[in-house]
Amino acid sequence: MDTLLETGVVPAGLGARDTLRLEAGLPLHGHELGQGITPLQAGLSWVVRFDKGDFRGRAPLEAERDRGVERFLRGMTTQGRQPPREGAIVLRDGVTVGTVTSGNFSPVLGHGIALGFLDPEIVPGNDVEIEIRGRSLAATVVETPFVRR
């Protein structure tokens, strides 16, 4: 560790890592990836090759694809410094349409950003509300990544 510090590297904690990965729109295991979350829901259908041979989990993925995916991982932005937080309910016109899986304040953008699983009819450009501590925070569904080069 000392050798790295002597080169001028500055340590960064998990908070920095989480902010950077969220600004890039990258999923985190246990939040946007994991048990009960399919690649089709997480926006990772490009890693599933249905045109290849059999693989573990193929039948349930084909069934989900054929009947229609019930939720999609989407990006959301808010105004101001209050960050959306994991577990917050997402509403549209007073009806629950999803849940925030990760959220934080983006120092690059200067406002809150979040990832969450939303109903399929909720698409980029839609306005939603995120419930935080009994208050409603206005948000807009957006394409990810939040920060582009």
Hey, roughly how much beta strand do the residues contain?
Answer: 25-35%
Overall helicity: 10-25%
- In the predicted model, the low-confidence regions spanning at least 5 consecutive residues are none
Tally of extended strands? Answer: 6
Rg is 18 Å
The biggest sheet amounts to: 6 strands, antiparallel, barrel
Number of helical segments with 4 or more residues? 3
User: Strand-and-helix sequence, N→C?
Assistant: HHHEEEEEE
Cross-sheet strand order for the largest sheet: 1-4-3-2-5-6
User: How far apart are the termini?
Assistant: 31 Å
Assign the structural class, choosing from mainly alpha, mainly beta, alpha/beta, alpha+beta, or little secondary structure.
alpha+beta
**Overall geometric form:** flat
Query: What is the averaged pLDDT score?
Result: 94
Question: What is the topology?
Answer:
Blueprint: H1 2-6, H2 14-23, H3 58-67, E1 72-78, E2 89-92, E3 95-106, E4 111-118, E5 127-132, E6 135-142
Antiparallel strand pairs: 1-4, 1-6, 2-3, 2-5, 3-4, 5-6
